[in-house]
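ARCHIVE CARD
CATEGORY: sequence design from structure
SOURCE FIELD: tokenized fold
FIELD CONTENT:
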């Protein structure tokens, strides 16, 4: 049953990464902030989203290998 916790964490991590990506993709430039700040926030958010998805995939692969076939 240890594979279940690993799989749940992997799914949560992938879902969190996709959620962050959706939030960052829908950023609109605000007039009171410089354009560079919006671009920097997009790059930072994209990096966080990619890392979260990658960690989730690693955990899902580990759960797949730990599943008692």
């Amino acid at each position: 049953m240890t594979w279940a916790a690993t799989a749940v964490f992997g799914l949560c991590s992938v879902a969190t990464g996709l959620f962050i990506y959706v939030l960052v993709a829908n950023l609109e430039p605000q007039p009171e902030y410089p354009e560079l700040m919006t671009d920097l926030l997009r790059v930072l958010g994209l990096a966080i989203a990619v890392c979260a998805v990658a960690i989730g995939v690693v955990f899902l692969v580990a759960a797949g290998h730990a599943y008692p076939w």
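CARD ANNOTATION: The two ends are 12 Å apart (CA to CA). The chain has a mean pLDDT of 93.
SHELF: design records, drawer C
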